[in-house]
Design goal:
The chain is of the alpha/beta class. The chain has ten helices and eleven strands. The strands form two sheets. Strands 1, 2, 5, 6, 7, 8, 9, 10 and 11 form a nine-stranded mixed beta sheet that branches. A two-stranded antiparallel ribbon has the order 3-4. The protein is globular. The termini are far apart.
Length: 330
């Protein structure tokens, strides 16, 4: 039952020849081929999801407590940064903001559409340097068309983006989530249980600081590692004299990180070219390599890479210790 292909969801599903004691584990069921119970559809979808995700090495969500902090800008430039670090054709972006998708615009893919294949398969749109992108924007008829959906439909769409899209072998998948801790964020965390972590974006204002605490608490309650906090729009560096002016104050992100004992990844100063490049579909860091904002951004990228390397090392040690315990118990 496809949301993206325009089919309607219903509350009733035809069921035939299903025993009351059915546990929904279709892989070991002898009558699975003749069954059309809704649990079989769910099982098959879950298996497709596991298969797709198994081919993606790292999954990172980018979240924020409120809108307007530059979260999507950070996501788009993160993707480009990792591509530039030697991962060409191995980076994907899932634009999970169902109501306000803007990743295609920032990556120069506005007006593109998802390509369908046999068996309901979908293929992501490929951008510069092989970045693979999936977004609700690719299935809407025009810019004026709103998405007026409740939670279940949004979760179904996100599940399809993950399970029905042929992402292929990826080193990194960045998920751009809408502001807050609602349906989309909850859906992604539930659908990707092995999420490497979340990057939380905020800005120096006290309003943003107050709300970002909710994003931190949300990640902790979902048992998702917090890679760190990024303070965006942290001061303005004059391109002529190099002087820094704290337009929206500064240091709020670092203070929140210290108060909540989570890593602080760094601050990104304001640069007018960030807005211009985003509007023109050009990742800022690729076009302005000498900008203070780009340098700050690349330092943040290094910290994210270090976090992932440390996590991989810790997992390898855990697996090694588990294997040693098994051997000793024999």
């Amino acid at each position: 039952m496809s949301v993206l292909n325009g089919e309607k969801m219903t509350n009733s599903t035809k069921q035939v020849n299903v025993a009351e004691e059915c546990d929904g584990k279709c892989g070991s069921c002898s009558t699975s081929d003749d069954c059309n119970d809704h649990r079989k559809q769910q099982y098959e979808q879950e298996q497709k999801l596991k298969l797709r995700l198994s081919k993606i090495k790292h999954k990172i969500a980018v979240i924020s407590g409120k809108g307007g902090v530059g979260k999507s800008t950070v996501t788009a430039n993160l993707a480009m940064a990792f591509v530039m670090q030697g991962h060409r054709d191995k980076v994907g972006v899932l634009d999970a903001d169902i109501h306000g998708p803007c990743i295609p615009k920032m990556l120069g893919l506005k007006g593109q559409t998802l390509i369908g294949g046999p068996g309901g398969m979908l293929f992501p749109v490929t951008g510069k340097l092989g970045i693979k992108v999936v977004s609700m924007d690719f299935v809407l008829p025009n810019d004026e068309a709103p998405v007026i959906w409740r939670g279940p439909l949004k979760m179904r769409a996100i599940q399809q983006f993950l399970s029905d899209v042929t992402w292929g072998e990826l080193d990194y998948l960045f998920i751009d989530l809408p502001p807050g801790t609602g349906d989309e964020s909850l859906s992604v965390m539930q659908l990707i249980p092995d999420m490497d972590g979340v990057v939380i974006v905020t800005m120096p204002s006290e309003v943003s600081q107050a709300v970002v605490k909710k994003a931190v608490t949300f990640a902790k309650q979902m048992n998702v590692p917090i890679i760190g906090i990024v303070e965006n729009m942290s001061g303005f560096v004059c391109p002529d004299c190099g002087a820094k002016v704290d337009i929206f104050r500064t240091g709020g992100g670092k203070k929140i990180a210290e108060d909540l004992t989570v890593p602080y990844l760094g601050s990104i100063p304001i640069d007018p070219n960030i807005c211009t490049d985003s509007d023109n579909g050009l990742p800022f860091i690729a076009e302005n390599k000498t900008s203070p904002a780009t340098k700050a951004f690349m330092e943040i990228v290094e910290k994210i890479q270090q976090f992932l390397e440390n996590t991989e090392t810790a997992r390898s040690k855990e697996i090694k210790n588990e294997n040693m315990c098994k051997c000793n118990s024999k």
